């Protein structure tokens, strides 16, 4: 492995997206497909100037409807494709709107599978106008292998019993809570939606394995001693498909603190029916054991439960019971309250 | 992670190289740069028809010197670049020899950093002649995420306390020993030199992280119940740069048996001066714990020591002492002998 040099030569840095955004809704008629736009409205309202939709669209974020030219005049710097469709493709009916955005002075940001540069004609027009086409699913060039060197500043990583149960949400809520307490904190995004919200980051699951820890090192660089990087976790060390992503991110992030994310009642790993979810104790223990390799001082501050499927009383009872059993704070960041305040206290202890 | 689809659409399979090879030595004058050619001569002599070198070269493998046309007449199917240089580039002085090989009916196989298709003119000539340009550093297209599904057949994976201490060598020696005992066994290559020796495989460190376990699943597919796949390990779960590669390979290989590879006396991780080597006990324990996720029956058959830097007596004493201490066979496959026979017995126990 040490003989494998990077195929890139440029110095790498995390992606940086031009903000604020004009959210593009295409011709979408199903609210479910506009998840990205809603997420940006909810988590980064100050970075969203307005929305732009084709006449066929019926969904709306409730933000002001603006043309690309109007949005640019109000400070927008990119058109962000805020919708998905089942194929992850860019339909021909969207293309004239994308060109209109480029001509209005906006870059284009996309999380679709297809690369913007592969949309016929788009790259030529962007090149002529000096505009950027940014695909957030694709990692930056110039990534290298990790060094394991201890970096300055403090780091928190959200980890999980499984995929898709609140690691991004928890990291966003924790970074907001730290800032609300007057601390210097940044959310560090490791997946495409998080990258759009943060305005930058690295899509860790798309990074070549040999560079996975190195990319994580780049994602949370040296910082002031009292600065917190709150890193969005990915996957699970227990997932038979994605553990490599989780371990590279854990090693490279060298977190001082982890929060274990879980959805009470989930018993089977997502997409892998024959795999049981690990216990919370196992999840804490394995993350601490592996994380100690690059940060011997790693500790678990508590747990974040996604209780959106439970009623208020039941959710509170489940969290209280697990908190008592494990001797750690357990909170649902969406519900907030005293439990969440205790979880933040524990992060800072 | 589960929302990230593969950017590829074709069905994937491991790389397959056209054999036998004509080993190309370029204009090499330093034996150290011809390591790949020597490795092929030593490990795959039946797959090497001869060697071909420019007049400037002073190194030789001792195999017959053949022109591409002569080699093709004797059955060779590809020219394999058997040398490296510090930049990993293909010098202009080599190009006419590569073209000569294409014209003689040989494909070209390379492990250089630069892609063969990026050598000016080469792709056009290969296309015209219907010849293949194969870069073994680059994974096959069509890789997908792992499933964790239990596969048929038996699997052995070599793992290590560190990089570059004999995982490939051990896997080759073990697969040869199994065949010598009349068993049905295949060496499964996960790095470029191993791929050239085996005539196929997947360069696991170049695979996108999300597909790492899936690629390992593809590398050792379903097989007959008594068939052994002996999988070449990569890196170390304890390496701060490469553990993601090691874990994806461990999960996807779902080995029944591991052999822990080590170099006695090595105390510091390669390329990471501030990281101490893990103990043998820790290495066995962590590999078994993580490997049990996809194969609960995983066990450690013993250890393979690289003792090339020690005298015979000292090597034997070190291995005997560690074998006693750990209660497991310890052998150096290069030295072979009773110790190695006991290690193979233990694999089959």
Task: Please summarize what this structure is.
The structure is a homodimer of 349-residue chains. The first copy, chain A, is an alpha/beta fold. In chain A, 32% of the residues lie in helices and 18% in strands.
Describe the structure.
Two copies of one chain form a homodimer. Chain A is built from eleven helices and 15 strands. With 349 residues, the first copy, chain A, is α/β, with parallel strands linked by helices. Chain A has two domains: 18-135, Rossmann fold; 154-348, Rossmann fold (3-Layer(aba) Sandwich). Chain A has a six-stranded parallel sheet with strand order 8-10-7-11-14-15, with helices on both faces. A five-stranded parallel sheet of chain A has the order 3-2-4-5-6, with helices on both faces. Chain A has a two-stranded antiparallel sheet with strand order 1-9. In chain A, helix 3 links the parallel strand 4 and strand 5 (107-110). In chain A, helix 3 packs parallel to helix 4 (122-129) and helix 7 (212-219) crosses helix 8. The first copy, chain A, is globular. Residues 1-10 of chain A have low confidence and may be disordered. Chains A and B meet through helix 7, helix 8, strand 13 and helix 9 of A and helix 7, helix 8, strand 13 and helix 9 of B.
Going by helix content, strand content and strand pairing, the class of chain A is: alpha/beta
CATH topology of the largest domain in chain A: Rossmann fold
Number of strands of chain A: 15
Overall pLDDT confidence of chain A? 94
Q: Strands of the largest sheet of chain A, in order across it?
A: 8-10-7-11-14-15
Largest sheet of chain A: 6 strands, parallel
The SSE order of chain A reads EEHEHEHEHEEHEHEHEHEEEHEHEH
CATH superfamily of the largest domain in chain A: P-loop containing nucleotide triphosphate hydrolases
Under the CATH scheme, which architecture of the largest domain in chain A would be assigned? 3-Layer(aba) Sandwich
Return residue spans of chain A where pLDDT drops below 50 for at least 5 consecutive residues. Answer: 1-10
Termini gap of chain A: 39 Å
